[in-house]
Amino acid sequence: MSRHLPFEGIENFRDFGDYAAGTRRLKRGLLYRSAHHAQATEADLAKLAALGLSLIVDLRRSNERENHPCRRWEGFAAEVIDNDIGQEHADEWHEFIARSDLTPASFHSYMLDYYDGAPHAKRHIDLYARYFQALARTEGPVLVHCAAGKDRTGILCALTHHVAGVHEDDIVADYLLTNDPERIERRLPMIRAAIAEATGREPTDEALRVAMRVEAEYLERAFAAMRAQHGSIDGYLDEALGLTPALREQIHERLLA
């Protein structure tokens, strides 16, 4: 089956449920992930409304939300989780491309550094903790998104899978579904133009593909950072995000068939 759901103006929209989780299985049609919704068409809004979303987690910084506000459908009533923490680092991507030589190696190195720090960024800890609290108590489908729906979203969806008991191989495979070749090729001109406008220089297509892809080693770097400070991924979930046994049980009953 295809996990990608086609939308006209929303990229990387996927169902990340319906995986085996021990002796049980994640429900389908309950867990969604995507890029932002600023370019959602009227048809997209109708499709989103039909999903019956009860919770949306917007992992973007406030400047990202202000520059590209998500469109909402008539009668929108979903709970939205976001925050304004960490705005002092809001331009880290633009600062990187301004000083970078824009080679594939530089983009790869940037991504490794990003994943090293992402799990313990104050804004992510706040967002991730509030997400799991809300996940345990809300009813109806949930949507997690950031700007591109690949890094911040990827880590949180992988943690959701881990909490549910999804096998590590499936966690990584789902994370790598961001690497849709057709989508990446389609978006190359837009990303190239944005970087050229910001820097006056144009990276190669190879470098752009590195910037737009995810790699299994990125997710492992995030997990390694969790293990380094907390002993394990479960230690991170407990100590950093406050996932008690009772909360985990609530999440299992909500997500697992």
Describe, in plain words, how this protein is organized in 3D.
With 257 residues, the chain is of the alpha/beta class. The protein has one domain: Protein tyrosine phosphatase superfamily (Protein-Tyrosine Phosphatase, Chain A), CATH 3.90.190.10. 53% of the residues lie in helices and 8% in strands. The chain is built from twelve helices and seven strands. It has helices at residues 42-51, 62-67, 92-99, 104-117, 122-137, 152-164, 168-175, 181-199, 205-212, 216-230, 233-239, 245-255, and strands at 14-15, 20-21, 24-25, 31-34, 55-58, 79-81, 142-145. It has a five-stranded mixed sheet with strand order 1-4-7-5-6, covered by helices on one side. Strands 2-3 form a two-stranded antiparallel ribbon. Helix 4 runs parallel beside helix 9 and helix 6 (152-164) packs antiparallel against helix 7. It starts with 13 loop residues before the first strand and ends with a helix.
Short overview:
This protein is of the alpha/beta class. The chain has helices at residues 42-51, 62-67, 92-99, 104-117, 122-137, 152-164, 168-175, 181-199, 205-212, 216-230, 233-239, 245-255; strands at residues 14-15, 20-21, 24-25, 31-34, 55-58, 79-81, 142-145. Helix 8 (181-199) packs across helix 9 (205-212).
